[in-house]
Amino acid sequence: MAKIVVQPDTPAHVLAAFGRLPRVSDILSATGLAPDYSRIPRHVLTHAAERGTALHATVNLYHTLGEDEFSNYDVHPEVAPGFGGYKNFLAESGFAFERSEFEVISERWHFCGHPDLLGRLNGGLMLIDLKYMDTVHLWPATYQLTLYKLAFEEQEWENPPIQACYVLQLKHDGAYRLHMVPTGPAEQQVAQAAVIVHRAIEEGRR
Questions:
Q1: What is the pLDDT of residues 73-105, one digit of tens each?
Q2: CA distance 130 to 141
Q3: In this structure, are residues 155 and 161 in contact, taking their beta carbons and an 8 Å threshold?
Q4: Which of 108, 127, 131 minimizes the C-alpha distance to 13?
């Protein structure tokens, strides 16, 4: 089998395909912009992550199959409250779904990410990050969504720009709350600086 050699100037989409492009979550964690869960027991974090992953997969399957076919599936009891809240959000907000769990790549800044939801609200294009938790940290999500927005608008320049970014908080009692987060010039400066600092950290380890 031929050996694949990745050159320093390899295009970002090729690096992403081989897992060599940093993800948004990696960048934020390395630069101190991710939530600090160090005081929470590992088994609690692991279970919460698995529950969140299951909810994301359920939402994605719901939109992939459509409501009629999805009704043939059972939703896990731990996921059901969050999914119920998500369906209430769809019914009450008028959100028009377009995509879920898709990849965005920034060729200019050399990173990739996976936004949870893309759709329209009141005609405007918006990105949504799902958080299945009773207490949500909006500060880290601000930079997460800012980088998603930056990569999306670079990658899909022919589409209208993102009008707003939101965190959709899905609570364990079935309630939901939609939080708008800022992604303007100030947030872009911090997010881009994080990308640069992360790159310097990685180069220093070589």
A1: 999 999 999 999 999 999 999 999 999 999 999
A2: 10
A3: no
A4: 108
